[in-house]
């Protein structure tokens, strides 16, 4: 177990009834900051335990996804499970779930029942389309949120340049962003409930995957509403700023260069040996550079192709131009900045012979940064401890629940 500094959310207790990514991501962020997160999962465990690379049957992905949580295994469909959940709710500040709308109510755990156990409970629902509206009952995962939210249309090369389908971002960004919004909503609700002049009332947070992605779309809707303009994918560049793109290198890598202000553009042109282009009408300002971006990217790319990526990084850093090679996992693991700030950490996980690399805690609260207290635990690792501590169940009562397959 890693030694961690007390987190800023120490003393807060969160109950998670979630699976896969969205709700578990939200609760992991809260747990990283010190909250006591109790995760309720099926007797067989969260399906996410089977995701990613496995070593001797243990998921490396789960090591980080489930970290800092106390996990109990509970068959929510068993008649006796309802009383266990309600008993936990009485000791809980907030509940976060990501079932389909209405599913908790079908299990006898609707908001009215939950708040019967604790009237000031904050409840956060994460679903594909939200708890209301004509799409509320549709099935959805994060990728559907990306599609309907407008992101998948933009993660592509410019129109007419490729017949390949628009690519996925590479991680479950729809789930993760909705998890972030759930965290914001929960903390806001707790602030209104518990602050010095708070009202002591519980609140309901309704987060949709689709809306979470749509909220990231910058000026897409205003431009369409006012001008009828449909924002189009721009490949590796930015449609509103130039030069900003990924450029090829002599050793087959890619380097990002963002030189879209006047001083930066001038320094870049000096660096690549084209000072005569500073101030010419085609590149005299950002709008002019955007209009001529294809030619500009071509001449920058011709320069970057003549150097290996490490040499380019050094030259651009010396010229104080924002730039970076495109990092892989290996680059991230070795990066001194990430290591210095604890964003890449070696965490002991008893399921693996060697320490597992984890990301650090975000945000970094200087006075109470939290940390990684333990890696993702085994199914039901804390069932006895949690039910004993919070519900007062003795070994005999626990044994009865095990025998009836209520817990496992």
TrEMBL record:
<dbReference type="InterPro" id="IPR044855">
    <property type="entry name" value="CoA-Trfase_III_dom3_sf"/>
</dbReference>
<dbReference type="Pfam" id="PF02515">
    <property type="entry name" value="CoA_transf_3"/>
</dbReference>
<dbReference type="InterPro" id="IPR050483">
    <property type="entry name" value="CoA-transferase_III_domain"/>
</dbReference>
<keyword id="KW-0808">Transferase</keyword>
<dbReference type="InterPro" id="IPR023606">
    <property type="entry name" value="CoA-Trfase_III_dom_1_sf"/>
</dbReference>
<dbReference type="GO" id="GO:0016740">
    <property type="term" value="F:transferase activity"/>
</dbReference>
<dbReference type="InterPro" id="IPR003673">
    <property type="entry name" value="CoA-Trfase_fam_III"/>
</dbReference>
<protein>
    <submittedName>
        <fullName>CaiB/BaiF CoA transferase family protein</fullName>
    </submittedName>
</protein>
């Amino acid at each position: 177990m890693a030694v961690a500094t007390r987190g800023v959310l120490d003393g807060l207790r969160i109950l998670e009834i979630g699976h896969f990514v969205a709700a578990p991501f939200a609760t992991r962020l809260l747990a990283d900051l010190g909250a006591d997160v109790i995760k309720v999962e099926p007797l067989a465990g969260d399906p996410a335990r089977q995701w990613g690379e496995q070593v001797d049957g243990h998921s490396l992905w789960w090591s980080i996804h489930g970290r800092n949580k106390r996990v109990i295994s509970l068959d929510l469909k068993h008649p006796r499970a309802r009383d266990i959940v309600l008993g936990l709710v009485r000791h809980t500040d907030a509940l976060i779930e990501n079932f389909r709308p209405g599913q908790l109510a079908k299990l006898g755990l609707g908001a009215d029942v939950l708040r019967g156990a604790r009237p000031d409970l904050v409840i956060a629902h994460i679903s594909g389309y939200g708890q209301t509206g004509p799409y509320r009952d549709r099935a959805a995962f994060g990728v559907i949120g990306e599609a309907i939210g407008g992101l998948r249309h933009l993660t592509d090369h410019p129109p007419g340049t490729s017949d390949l389908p628009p690519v996925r971002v590479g991680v479950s960004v729809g789930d993760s962003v909705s998890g972030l919004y759930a965290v914001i909503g929960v903390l806001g609700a707790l602030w209104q409930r518990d602050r010095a002049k708070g009202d002591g009332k519980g609140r309901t947070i309704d987060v949709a995957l689709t809306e979470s992605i749509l909220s990231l779309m910058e000026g897409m809707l205003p431009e369409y509403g006012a001008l009828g303009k449909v924002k189009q994918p721009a490949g590796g560049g930015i449609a509103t700023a130039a030069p900003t793109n990924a450029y090829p290198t002599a050793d087959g890598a890619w380097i990002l260069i963002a030189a879209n202000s006047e001083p930066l553009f001038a320094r870049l042109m000096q660096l690549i040996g084209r000072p005569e282009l500073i101030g010419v009408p085609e590149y005299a300002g950002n709008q002019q550079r955007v209009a001529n971006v294809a030619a500009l990217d071509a001449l920058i790319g011709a320069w970057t192709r003549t150097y290996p990526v490490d040499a380019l990084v050094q030259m651009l850093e010396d010229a104080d131009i924002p730039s970076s090679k495109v990092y892989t996992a290996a680059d991230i693991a070795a990066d001194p900045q990430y290591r210095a700030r604890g964003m890449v950490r070696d965490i002991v996980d008893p399921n693996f012979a060697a320490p597992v690399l984890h990301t650090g805690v975000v945000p970094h609260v200087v006075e109470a940064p939290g940390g990684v207290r333990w890696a993702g635990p085994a199914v039901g690792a804390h069932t006895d401890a949690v039910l004993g501590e919070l519900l007062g169940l003795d070994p005999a009562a626990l044994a009865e629940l095990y025998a009836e397959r209520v817990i496992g």
